[in-house]
Fold:
Amino acid sequence: MPRAGSVKWYKKKESIYTILGVFAIATTFILISCFAFGFGQQSNGPRTLQLISVIFRHGDRNPTHFYPNDPYKDLSYWPDGLGALTKEGKKQMYKLGKFLRRRYQGFISDKYYQDDLYTFSSDHDRCLMSAQVCLAGLYPPIEDQIWNDDINWQPIPVHTIPRNLDKLIVVKKPCPMYDKELNETYYNEFFIKINEDNNDLYKYLTKHTGSQINSLTAVESLFNTLEVEDKMKLKLPDWTKKYFNKMKELAMLNLASLTFTPISKKLKGGPLIKEVVQHMSQRILGLKQPSKKIYLYSSHDVTLISVLRALGIEDIDKPDYGSSIIFELHQKLTDGDHFVKLLYLNNTEQTDPVDLRIPQCGEDECKLKDFITITKPLVPTNWEDECQIS
Structure:
């Protein structure tokens, strides 16, 4: 991916007036650059950061289920419980908060102010906890916000909604039209052939797991458990070695099947894109006061995949724990134009997110007016109405 190059300064003998002049110009340029974007260098002229929206996957977790022949199904291996955020997961989320603090230092305040931030989470314990730990890394209390010398932490609200009402993150609110699209996807020729081509693999997995494996959904379910156990440094059974990478490929394919058609993309990935765009519009028009600077969404791998696929970005790997989609709204100081940058953080070990090209924009940055035009057909006008089967 293209990266900003380093600025090189060359010295030469000049008069004291020339040196002072160069210094003044350089200082002005540096100050502009600093305020432009978290004190980072930017291309195509100075600009100011206006708004950030971050959609991230929760941290490392325990398995949510086991297969009958699983050697690690005894709960003594998982004292925190099924699906729980692990110690490693907490560390990952704390790192994510620290990453956001470093990257956006100078744009977001050192102190937590409720008017600057809004955090929304999937109603899963691991997501709620991930959001809380991320915020601990992003906003450690300082100065008059320190309320207890025994703990370097302050409470920051995390909002959520019951899963059966969620039409933003996991999108589990009943939607007949989406269910219809998903059912038709499963019977699509492409997926029928995938199942036929992997019939021998399904039989192999069925034999070794003691569970009926006859679909991509079943493979993904199995792979998720194996992946968790592998990350926990538990020795996987020998039979898994031959097909581990193949199972990962099929697991990703199953996640993609959830947004296989234009309608399913709109209904599952579209609502969150719509909210991101609305916040951008409200920010530049001053329609919502107080105006937030940063929105955080604690979510799942399927959330990230659904959003990217709805945007037309389909060449993606299965998101790792802590993977993040970052939408940045900027305004150029030169002409006042607003534009959007889309970034992706592969995991919390990565120090620099990569630029993602928004399809139909053709550049790493996309004019806001173009972004609004591009996303308009990708998002539902009225989700409730469009979920109905006419």
